[in-house]
Write a structure and sequence with these properties.
Length: about 140
Amino acid sequence: MIGLSFEEINIGDSAQLSRTISESDVYLYAGVTGDNNPAHLDEQYAQKTMFKKRIAHGMLITGLISSVFGNQLPGNGTIYLSQSVRFLAPVYFGDTITARVEVIEKKDEKKRLVCKTTCINQDGKIVIDGEAEVLPPRAPSTE
């Protein structure tokens, strides 16, 4: 099923999903991307960092925002155009992260949406903050 069209979406609309980040998630992400930074994979190394233990890749967590866009708001058929992101706090293995998007602007000329994007951990702390622009799927043709 195709997602919501530009015309079906209003400023203030929002959606979210939650996921607990596992060690497997981090290793799979490292394998796919080739990002083998020891801060993510080597416990002994990570203990000597400012975080004191291994952390999840920031872009792995940002990927949860993509999931909200592609599956919920606007949904299937959405094209992700841009994303600004600020990494505010680490995400540790076992943290439950809630990725949330909220429509804050509609650009009528090109039928694009600007959305506030946040990822929040189980303690209510914002770990990622940003803004994205997406192109919702076109309304089905009535011809």
